[in-house]
TrEMBL record:
Record family assignment: Belongs to the 3-oxoacid CoA-transferase subunit A family.
Coiled-coil positions: none
Name of the molecule in the record: Succinyl-CoA--3-ketoacid-CoA transferase
Superkingdom, taxonomy of origin: Bacteria
Keyword GTP-binding: no
Keywords assigned: Transferase
Gene3D superfamilies found in the cross-reference section: Glutaconate Coenzyme A-transferase
Organism listed in the record: Sediminicola luteus
Gene Ontology molecular function, alphabetical: CoA-transferase activity
Length: 234
């Protein structure tokens, strides 16, 4: 049986270089590839383009890469929790491409499926559609969106096996699965790595064919982005 395991995060990110385009899974701070991000910070790669639903917070997630000014361009949907992101964007230090959330997910899924482009009504008549081909279908206008192109996709799963099969948990299923196989190399870090053939096939969300490298992650913080509580009724 084919095994996709690598020894550690250093081996997992091998080949990442300055100027590359990287996909990074997760939703908010949920399900982000913490180990891979930390290693990218340590390596000091620069001028990278990051495709991610959001930009993390100032001291966690992609915010760590932004602190070191390693990111040249962010392609995101929601970026409202990061002061450093705001500062770099307003000062012109950071290129930003805002994309509707569903469109961002579909541009990843299209790349995963080998579909070069698709039409969507989202963004028609707004700045999102500027410079893009538009077309009418059944009396409604649509914008053509190209699939993303990236050298690496970094995802985080709850459980995986040595063959690269992945199971996600909760909100981590939002963007991680559609990024698997959407880049030239997909790297998965997992909370629990098990021998090949031990996962229930009916529970697998992403088959190993979409994963190139998998490793056992460590020391996950799993931060809460915004903690909202209410007082207990007396």
């Amino acid at each position: 049986m084919i095994r996709k395991t690598v020894a550690n995060v250093q081996e997992a990110v091998s080949g990442v270089a300055d100027g590359m385009t990287l996909m990074l899974g997760g939703f908010g701070l949920c399900g982000i590839p913490e180990n891979a991000i930390a290693e990218l910070v340590r390596l000091g790669v620069s001028d990278i383009t990051c495709i991610s639903n959001n930009a993390g917070v100032d001291d966690f997630g992609l915010g760590l890469l932004l602190q070191q000014k390693q990111i040249k361009k962010m392609i995101s949907s929601y970026v409202g929790e990061n002061d450093e992101f705001e500062r770099q964007m307003l000062s012109g230090e950071l290129e930003v491409e805002l994309t509707p959330q569903g469109t961002l997910a579909e541009k990843c899924r299209a790349a995963q499926a080998g579909i070069p482009a698709f039409f969507t009504p989202a963004g028609y008549g707004t700045e999102v559609a500027e410079g893009k081909e538009t077309r009418e279908f059944d009396g409604k206008m649509y914008v053509m969106e190209p699939a993303y192109k990236a050298q690496f996709a970094f995802v985080k799963a709850w459980k995986g096996d040595e063959a690269g099969n992945l199971i996600f948990k909760g909100t981590a299923r939002n963007f991680n699965p559609c990024m698997c196989g959407a880049a030239q190399i997909t790297v998965a870090e997992v909370e629990e790595l098990v021998p090949a053939g031990t996962l229930d096939p009916n529970q697998i969300h992403i088959p190993g064919i979409f994963v190139n490298r998998i490793f056992q992650g460590a020391q996950y913080e799993k931060r809460i982005e915004q903690l909202t509580v209410r007082t207990k009724p007396i």
